[in-house]
Design brief:
About 55% of the residues lie in helices and about 0% in strands. The protein is mainly alpha-helical and about 270 residues long. It has a two-stranded antiparallel ribbon. Helix 10 packs antiparallel against helix 11. The longest helix is centred in the N-terminal third of the chain and has 22 residues. The chain is globular. The N terminus is likely disordered.
Length: about 270
């Protein structure tokens, strides 16, 4: 995993890049009608999401872990002995994925947590579950990725995001894109609280300030967007603990993560309680 699990780039599409897309979703698409103000908020959120991603892409994974020449993370033998017990494995979410929104959120956390599990050489608990969910979701952007008509790299992610987001809008799926983005922020912040020593090792004070500032802007934007999209309202309580992340130094970020650790864990758990 070249960029750790700590990358937000187009999670609504990237998370399903290796999944199938064959069956029709059980639920209809969301209402695609929107006001000028709503479009402006979404445009601003897109810019902030791209900006946050760019900040994270600057971080060099080789300073977090030992990295092989092909960019894969290589944990030490001792590190692999202590496998994480905090990941969202499919078994934990049985019976909680009845709605289309919940399936999108599950795909997001599976994609992220699978990368962590792979680092520890854990048995693959995710691929089959992700393929099943992706076929049920039947997202219109999936086929483009699956057929490699759309690809990502560090330089083209913003342009590619816009292309795929337009497809999501045209098919009434824009709200699900934002649900996935919010889910990714919560899940990856949770992982950061669990792995501070490694994941903050290469942070500079500027990194801490830039990243938390952009997360705060996105949280504020979600609050504004929820006024126009009631189905996003429930995400606000999930995102609230992230409002405390406003660090101007790495030491301050460590303290804020420690102070909000329990709240972030509860928010992460609540992702599948609605």
């Amino acid at each position: 995993m070249k960029k750790l699990t700590f990358t937000f780039v187009a999670v609504a599409a990237m998370m399903m890049a290796a999944c199938g897309n064959k069956q029709k979703a059980a639920e209809g698409s969301s209402d695609s009608t929107e006001t000028f103000e709503e479009r402006q908020i979404k445009a601003g959120m897109s810019v902030q999401l791209d900006s946050l991603t760019q900040c994270l892409l600057r971080l060099n994974p080789s300073k977090f872990y030992s990295v092989t020449p092909d960019g894969k993370i290589n944990l030490s033998a001792d590190e692999k002995k202590v496998t994480p017990d905090y990941l969202f494995i499919p078994e934990k979410l049985e019976g909680k994925l009845e709605t289309l929104s919940a399936k999108y959120r599950a795909l997001t956390v599976y994609y992220i947590d699978q990368k962590v599990a792979q680092q520890y050489e854990m048995n693959d608990m995710y691929s089959q579950a992700m393929q099943k969910l992706a076929s049920e979701v039947n997202d219109p952007a999936l086929k483009l990725i699956k057929d490699e008509e759309v690809t990502y790299n560090d330089k083209n992610f913003a342009e590619t995001n816009k292309k795929l987001y337009k497809i999501e809008e045209e098919n009434g799926r824009a709200n699900f894109f934002w649900e996935c983005a919010a889910t990714a922020i919560v899940e990856q912040t949770f992982l950061l609280t669990q792995n501070q020593e490694k994941l903050l090792a290469n942070f500079t004070d500027k990194d801490a300030e830039d990243i938390t500032y952009r997360i705060a802007l996105l949280v504020d934007a979600f609050e504004e967007l929820s006024e126009y999209n009631p189905q996003l309202m429930q995400l606000l309580s999930v995102l609230q603990p992230l409002e405390k992340l406003n660090a101007i130094s790495v030491d301050q970020l460590r303290q804020q993560l420690n102070d909000s650790k329990e709240e972030v864990a509860q928010s992460r758990k609540s992702l599948f309680e609605f």
